[in-house]
Design brief:
Radius of gyration: 21 Å
Helix content: 25-40%
Shape: globular
Distance between the termini: 27 Å
Low-confidence stretches: 1-22
Structural class: alpha+beta
Length: 313
């Protein structure tokens, strides 16, 4: 069921002069200036390419980094370009052209060391490999290590969706102090928007869930033997190899349709619905960027000889 973007309200309240010593009120995201979605992704891809990424990797990494801004989570979006990803490239903690090493290949399952490649590209590449294996065996599992920060796990899990597959990403380890989404899942929604779920580590207080992630993503990948490394489990499942496509999509439609409703005048929606709606808004109306992030991106554009981003709206 396609979602229509909600109209963007440009009306703003009259400014109120702050008293001396009173901190400024932050500008709400809805009022941030907007830029074209494709132009934003293209600029970030050019920045990565200028820092040594092969062109196809640069585009995949840019899409992963911009995912937060396009789906309503700007705190995990392009703001991390100058505060996380470019500094790690400069220090050598991330190697933009590193080639993955196949450690074990067992048909439906494989173990790879990405040798400090960018996680923004590497985890997506691992999901693509898992999807290929699932197309042959019904399920594809890739265990990997040796990757840098990778953004939101749900974005990489969603790379299985265009292939009518279920995607799962689990992560353990990582750099000290670096936030991580240790679990992401994506599944076709049938007649409804696709299910895309991200779980932050702060919400994983249960010992059972923590151990599940650590065993499947950490112990299996061998990341415990590598200090300051990230281990992941990437899984793709092709449901139509087990049952009919019609039966699967009817069941998915019934499941996700049953989750919709209202509670006290507020709509009840499952993970992925609002993200899909925000994505449609960004494609139609532009991506909101805060002033500091916009200035950083325009400075990066100038440093590689490109024009600044174009404002829309």
């Amino acid at each position: 069921m396609p979602l229509r973007p909600r109209p963007f309200r440009s009306a703003r309240p009259e400014p109120v002069l702050a008293e001396e010593g009173t901190p400024e009120t932050p500008i709400p995201e809805q009022a941030w200036p907007r830029v074209r979605a494709d132009e934003l992704v293209t600029l970030v891809a050019h920045v990565f390419a200028a820092h040594g990424f092969p062109e196809p990797r640069a585009r995949i990494a840019a899409e992963a980094l911009c995912h937060g801004d396009l789906t309503g989570s700007p705190e995990t979006g392009v703001a991390d370009l100058t505060r996380v990803h470019l500094p790690m490239l400069k220090t050598g903690h991330v190697v933009p052209h590193a080639e993955p090493l196949m450690i074990a290949d067992r048909g439906a399952a494989a173990l790879l060391d990405y040798r400090r490649a960018s996680g923004l590209w590497a985890v997506g590449d691992a999901m693509d490999r898992a999807v290929t294996r699932a197309g042959r065996f019904g399920v594809g599992l890739v265990s990997l290590r040796g990757v840098g920060p990778f953004g939101r796990a749900g974005h990489h899990a969603a790379r299985a969706l265009p292939h009518a597959m279920i995607g799962l990403v689990l992560a353990a380890g990582g750099e000290p102090g670096q936030p991580m989404n240790p679990l992401g899942m994506a599944a076709p929604g049938g007649a409804y928007p696709e299910f895309v779920f991200d779980m932050d580590r702060s919400g994983s207080e249960g010992a059972g869930l923590t151990l599940l992630v650590e065993v499947l993503a950490g112990v299996l990948s061998g990341v415990a033997d590598h200090e300051h490394d990230t281990g992941l489990l990437v899984l793709a499942i092709a449901p139509t190899t087990l049952r009919s496509a019609d039966g699967f999509y009817r069941a998915a439609s019934a499941l996700f349709g049953s989750m919709l409703g209202w509670d006290g005048g507020a709509p009840i929606r499952y993970p992925g619905w609002r993200e899909a709606q925000h994505l449609e808004q960004c494609r139609a109306l532009g991506v909101p960027l805060s002033g500091p992030v916009r200035r950083e991106l325009d400075a990066l554009a100038a440093s590689i000889g490109l024009p600044p981003l174009t404002s829309v709206g």
